Amino acid sequence: MSQKHRPFLLRDLHFPKYLWALTAVYGLATFGHCVHNAEFLAYYPNMPEGMTHEVVYLAWMGLSVVGLAVVPFYMLDLGVMAAFVLALYGLLGLSGLGHYSLGALEEHTLVANLLIMFQGLSGLALAVRAMRETIKQAHRHAHRGAYGTPVEHDPRLSNR
Q: What band does 78 get if pLDDT is binned at 50, 70 and 90?
């Protein structure tokens, strides 16, 4: 099946290097926050009774599985799907902000606050950039002909 006839979600999409770098930064931020959370669980305010460091590490592994799911999609040239999963992976970083529903900013240690914020901000940056790249490349694909050549816009065919 040619690229032209593939559904949008199954189209190829090439990730620029900065997107891979953002993914690595966010992955490190998530790992750092989870390790800190697991090892200093007693210092996080109002954590649920059943929360153990094992549960925290399991949550990190679950989050990482979402991030790793990007790889097979990308390797199979399902780049748009990979970008959507990458954006979802980034948005999951905002879940760390849930700590503030259990305790105010002042109740957390400085390191905990920095790690929570770093995870949230780097995840949001990754999600926004992944979606922006998807839209940019989808727009580029929409303006190409059957053999990848640019299609000239004819103003007579426009409704405007």
A: confident
